[in-house]
Design a protein that fits this description.
The complex is a heterodimer of chains A (about 210) and B (about 140). Chain A is an all-alpha fold and about 210 residues long. Chain A has helices spanning about 5-35, 40-55, 60-75, 80-95, 105-120, 130-140, 145-155, 180-200, and strands at about 5, 100. Chain A has one domain (about 5-200): Serine Threonine Protein Phosphatase 5, Tetratricopeptide repeat. Chain B has a single domain (about 10-130), classed as Phosphotransferase system, mannose-type IIA component (Rossmann fold), CATH 3.40.50. The chains are: A mainly alpha (about 210), B alpha/beta (about 140).
């Protein structure tokens, strides 16, 4: 993938917000099976606030875009996905530093740092039926964003038979099996939006206003 | 040393009512006299169930007298939000600590200790010891 600037990262998050908006009902349905049925509405509120924050204050580096988005998610989501996604984006943004453009490899390494921060915060690991099950394989597949998208989706689908070991769903024990983890599902949307943004990089007129 | 600052206490719950009621309960059980400052940070700003980093930051600023702030949280996003804020370094007053303790019992122990002039370590230890109060 080509070098990515602040405009690319804004498009990524705008596409992620659109995907969350489109799939909010599905995310909430998944959460009603194992949690408190607010994942879709919480994330929609958060990502709506992210697009508004990016419109109001146009950060001019990739790192600053992600840090603003992460801060906004922590303060607006209201559920556990706020600090988890907020940490993911802020740590990734911090790891990107303050360069005006980043390469696919730099994004991969920064995202890995972000995912590791999420794992530390939540105390989770691969196979616990969490967002990590989508994010870890996605990071491994980068900088190929199409492969990352497929890996995230595959990781989310692979959470269906798992028993939850973290969060509210873990109280359900065996009954948490048979449903896709809502956090893995929303993480797959986020990585899918990254691939959409990358696909739009070639052949589109940069309209960064 | 008449007016030494005391450790402040912030109560983070998914529910505004739970946070406020635990603050009231702890103040009642801590006895009369001059109590250390306690501030509830429950629910979301619009009154729903959840966690608000804005309410948490505001409560911590309100109780911060320079001796540190002990934060007790109920579960899930309340714990994660405080941890995420602490990890950023600049969102909570210096000397703010998330205390690993049961919410109700830990708050009573923390408030008694803080009101008696205990420092942040003592408050955190007293709150954590509440895990050992077996009921059977």
């Amino acid at each position: 993938m080509a070098a990515m600037d602040a405009g690319f990262f804004r498009r990524w998050l705008t596409l992620a917000a659109a995907a969350v908006d489109r799939d909010a009902a599905r995310l909430t349905d998944l959460d009603s099976a194992v949690g408190d049925a607010d994942h879709g509405s919480n994330l929609r509120r958060g990502f709506t606030a992210v697009t508004a924050a990016l419109d109001a204050d146009s950060p001019d580096t990739p790192g600053a875009v992600l840090q603003l988005a992460g801060r906004t998610l922590v303060s607006t989501v209201g559920g556990a996905s706020g600090p988890l996604y907020g940490t993911l984006l802020r740590r990734t943004g911090k790891a990107l530093g303050d360069g005006a453009e980043v390469s696919g490899e730099e994004l991969r390494d920064a995202l890995r740092a972000g995912v590791e921060a999420v794992a530390r915060l939540g105390g989770g690991a691969a196979g616990d039926k969490t967002m990590l099950d989508a994010l870890l394989p996605a990071v491994d597949a980068l900088p190929d964003t199409a492969a990352a998208r497929a890996a995230a989706l595959g990781g989310a689908e692979a959470t269906v038979p798992l028993q939850a070991r973290k969060g509210r769903a873990s109280y359900l024990g065996e009954r948490s099996k048979g449903h896709m983890d809502p956090g893995a599902a929303s993480s797959a949307l986020l990585i899918g939006a990254l691939d959409e943004a990358a696909a739009g990089q070639d052949g589109t007129v940069e309209g960064d206003g | 040393m008449a007016e030494r600052a005391r450790v402040g206490i912030v109560l983070v719950s998914h529910s505004a009512e739970v946070a406020a009621s635990v603050a009231e309960l702890a103040a009642g059980l801590a006895g009369g006299g001059d109590l250390a400052p306690v501030a509830p940070a429950g629910g979301t700003p619009d009154g729903g169930l959840g966690t608000s980093s804005e309410l948490i930051a505001e409560a911590a600023r309100r109780v911060d007298g320079g001796a540190g702030v002990a934060v007790l949280a109920d579960l899930g996003s309340a714990v994660l939000t405080v941890q995420a804020m602490l990890a950023e370094g600049d969102e909570l007053p210096a000397g703010t600590r998330l205390v690993d303790a049961p919410f109700v019992e830990g708050t009573v122990a923390a408030l008694v200790t803080a009101s008696g002039g205990g420092d942040l370590n003592s408050v955190a230890e007293a709150a954590a010891e509440a895990y050992d109060f077996r009921k059977l």
